[in-house]
Write a structure and sequence with these properties.
single chain; alpha+beta; 2 domains; 6-stranded antiparallel sheet; extended; disordered C terminus; TraC-like domain-containing protein; TraC-like_dom
Length: about 210
């Protein structure tokens, strides 16, 4: 590696993920909400217009920015094939065993020729804590002149205050989505880490599931 090369982590502005909250290196917080999709084409013209107008009204009422992220990935069918293979092995009826095997072959051939994609919809909700110069000096004095225990305690209090404000925004987003007929759920720590791991390590899990 060249001497001036930098690790990938240096380009990622994330400091940590704590209690499902993304803490950036500059102290800002982010929350991620996973939302389902609705098929407008299955609705009547009146229902489509009502849904669009409701979503427009929801966006217009927000007094803070949000980011909507859509991730498209090829569906990994291998876990499903493994499940079918396990069931076929314990199947005692020869005809059902044969039919299961033929069905598995059909799934394999179909997924090799057609790319089946899955889409995940995320809403990223930010919270930025604004401080005045006098407030910044106060915190600096407290942090650098106090003990390590005091510093950790104050950092935890600061985090909880910010998270409380962020959770209020998450609640606003989820309520607005619900009025549009969209179900949503806030991601926890493990889910957030998994999302970012897949973003920065695309295709790494390929080949780890072996089918007989």
């Amino acid at each position: 590696m060249p001497l001036n090369a930098k690790a990938t982590q240096e380009f990622v502005p994330i400091k940590e993920v704590r209690d499902g909250v993304i803490v950036l290196k500059n102290g800002d917080l982010r929350a991620m909400v996973l939302a389902n999709s609705i098929n407008l084409s299955l609705k009547s013209d009146e229902e489509q217009k009502a849904t669009i107008l409701q979503f427009q009204s929801f966006l217009n009422t927000l007094d803070f920015p949000i980011q909507i992220s859509i991730q498209s990935r090829r569906l990994d069918i291998r876990p499903y094939l493994l499940l079918l293979d396990d069931r076929m092995k314990v199947q005692s009826e020869p005809l059902l065993k044969l039919q299961t095997n033929e069905y598995m072959e059909f799934i394999r051939n179909f997924t090799e020729t057609v790319s089946i994609m899955t889409k995940s919809f995320f809403v990223v909700i930010p919270y930025t804590h604004m401080t005045f110069k006098s407030e910044t000096k106060f915190w600096d004095k407290l942090f650098f002149r106090g003990s390590k225990e005091e510093k950790r305690a104050m950092e935890q209090v600061d985090f909880e205050e910010k998270r409380s404000q962020l959770e209020e925004r998450v609640s606003v987003i989820q309520q607005g989505l619900s009025r549009c007929g969209i179900n949503s759920a806030q991601l926890g720590t493990e889910e957030v880490v998994e999302v970012f791991y897949k973003v920065f390590n695309p295709g790494e899990l390929e080949g780890k599931i072996k089918l007989e």
